[in-house]
């Protein structure tokens, strides 16, 4: 097995080795490719080595060609990282997989079957435990003859349970999506309630500030009116004193005459 095959089979495979040929220079080269080059890999490699002065071991005319979607649709599958993937995902039946099916096909709800199969596994496991604690068989007998069929039954039952669980995956995905949507809806409702509560708190604070501002303006207005009244009385008294002084000065001038 070569290194590239091992790399493809790894958990996180690297890109195919052909990725280095997908460059803008090579794409431009193909656009201006002479038409007299024979349609063989050897002819293209020889021409490329002479033109670019670089070694290459692939024919870019086939390596850089776009995938034929019509071929993929016709075949019904595509290749990725060394594996063939069908276009339409389908779960093969137990009969198609060569496994005995322990339940009928026409069941509207297969969830109760899971409970029955689980009870079967538990009871079979109990029977195996009871067989193992019984008296040992004769020396010429197979020691596992009494439990081999039960172990196979447990394996078969587990495969049937796994198949039913795989059939319920779409329902599980739907319920999971509904649960996530309900969570998002509940979070949004909670946020809306928090925004409404904060809005009401801000509105009450504004009303309190408006009331306090009105009371402050009222007190300041009364104080200004009081100051204005005192200032008016002082001005009148000063004016009267000035007028009296002017009259006294006029009388003194008359007496001097």
TrEMBL record:
Origin: domain of life: Eukaryota
* A GO term for molecular function: transcription coregulator activity
Q: What is its main location?
A: nucleus
Query: Single GO cellular component annotation?
Result: core mediator complex
Q: Which Pfam families match?
A: Med7
Gene3D superfamilies, per the entry: 6.10.140.1520, 6.10.140.200
Tell me where it resides: Nucleus
List, alphabetically, the SUPFAM superfamilies matched: Mediator hinge subcomplex-like
Q: Which UniProt keywords apply?
A: Activator, Nucleus, Transcription, Transcription regulation
Write down the InterPro entries for this protein, in alphabetical order.
Med7/Med21-like, Mediatior_Med7, Mediatior_Med7_sf
**What quaternary structure, including any partners, is listed in this protein's UniProt entry?**
Component of the Mediator complex.
The entry assigns this protein to a family as follows:
Belongs to the Mediator complex subunit 7 family.
Q: What is this protein called?
A: Mediator of RNA polymerase II transcription subunit 7
Provide the species name: Wallemia mellicola (strain ATCC MYA-4683 / CBS 633.66) (Wallemia sebi (CBS 633.66))
Give the lineage: Eukaryota, Fungi, Dikarya, Basidiomycota, Wallemiomycotina
């Amino acid at each position: 097995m070569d290194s590239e095959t091992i790399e493809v089979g790894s958990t996180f495979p690297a890109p195919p080795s052909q990725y280095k040929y997908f460059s803008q220079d090579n794409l431009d080269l193909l656009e201006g490719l002479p038409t007299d080059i024979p349609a063989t890999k050897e002819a293209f490699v020889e021409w490329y080595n002479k033109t670019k002065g670089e070694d290459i071991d692939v024919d870019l005319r086939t390596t850089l060609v776009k995938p034929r979607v019509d071929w993929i649709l016709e075949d019904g599958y595509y290749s990725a990282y060394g594996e063939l993937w069908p276009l339409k995902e389908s779960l093969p039946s137990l009969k198609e997989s060569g496994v005995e099916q322990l339940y009928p096909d026409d069941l509207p709800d297969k969830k109760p079957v899971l409970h029955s199969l689980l009870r079967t596994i538990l009871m079979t496991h109990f029977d195996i435990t009871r067989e193992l604690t019984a008296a040992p068989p004769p020396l010429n007998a197979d020691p596992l003859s009494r439990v081999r069929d039960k172990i196979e039954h447990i394996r078969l039952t587990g495969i049937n349970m796994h198949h039913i669980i795989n059939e319920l995956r779409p329902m599980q995905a739907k319920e999971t999506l509904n649960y996530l949507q309900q969570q998002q809806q509940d979070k949004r409702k909670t946020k809306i309630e928090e925004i409404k509560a904060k809005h009401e708190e801000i509105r009450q604070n504004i009303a309190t500030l408006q009331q306090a501002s009105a009371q402050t303006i009222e007190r300041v207005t009364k104080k200004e009116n009081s100051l204005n009244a005192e200032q008016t009385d002082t001005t009148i008294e000063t004016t009267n004193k000035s007028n009296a002084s002017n009259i006294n000065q006029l009388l003194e001038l008359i007496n001097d005459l």
